[in-house]
Design a protein that fits this description.
6 helices, 6-stranded mixed beta sheet, 21% helix, 205 residues
């Protein structure tokens, strides 16, 4: 399993492009700079199999519309975040209102399992940072994409509209039950592991 992190946008989001031997890619959180993301897709000769959205904030979805036009593929997002992610409520300078994609084909929910391009993953519902936040867990590879739920040494903010500190705490309680060796790829900053965060993250300890 290949994981390429592409740093995009003014807020420094990690957009992840993930693929296996079949060269079908999952694009996780295309938040800005669609041309930069497209360069990786084209240079690796990948076919986009799906777009996976951890949550709806503008810095994680602003390149989704343009990329989905260029490389059509199913979009997976929780409906609680899809309800506002492409509206004026989700504009914050320097980000305008994100372009709404033609369709969001997959309505994500906790416990779902998908397989795209030979890669099998599970949806873990992790509300708190936003009402419809999710993480994507690849148990075979022991890899977890956490969006803005869990960072190396920190966690997502809950002071934005729709944030809920108690829900975030419950979501973190779910994540720390994963194996310690699980590699955490967050929406911002460096990667970590579940074991490292359990041992050192002050918001978890």
């Amino acid at each position: 399993m290949h994981v390429r992190s592409v740093l995009v946008g003014a807020f420094g989001v990690n957009c992840y492009i993930v693929w296996g031997e079949a060269k079908f890619a999952l694009v996780i959180d295309p938040g800005a700079d669609p041309e930069t993301v497209a360069q990786v897709i084209d240079s690796q000769r990948l076919t986009v199999a799906a777009y996976l959205i951890t949550h709806g904030h503008m810095d994680h979805v602003s390149a989704l519309g343009p990329l989905a036009k260029r490389y059509p593929a199913p979009i997976a997002m929780h409906p609680k975040d899809a309800a506002w992610a492409f509206s004026r409520a989700n504009a914050m300078p320097p980000y305008p209102v994100p372009e709404r994609p033609a369709a969001i084909e997959r309505q994500l929910a906790d416990g779902q399992t998908y397989e795209d391009g030979g890669l099998r993953y599970q949806v873990i519902g992790t509300p708190g940072h936003t009402p419809g936040g999710v993480c994507f867990h690849f148990p075979g590879e022991q890899i977890l994409f956490t969006g803005d739920t869990l960072f190396a040494g920190s966690v997502g903010r809950t002071d934005f509209t729709g944030g809920d500190e108690a829900l975030l705490g419950a979501s973190l309680g779910v994540l720390i039950r994963l194996p310690d060796a699980t590699i955490v790829f967050p929406g911002h900053g460096p990667k970590s592991t579940i074991g490292q965060e359990k041992a050192t993250n002050p918001f978890i300890r």
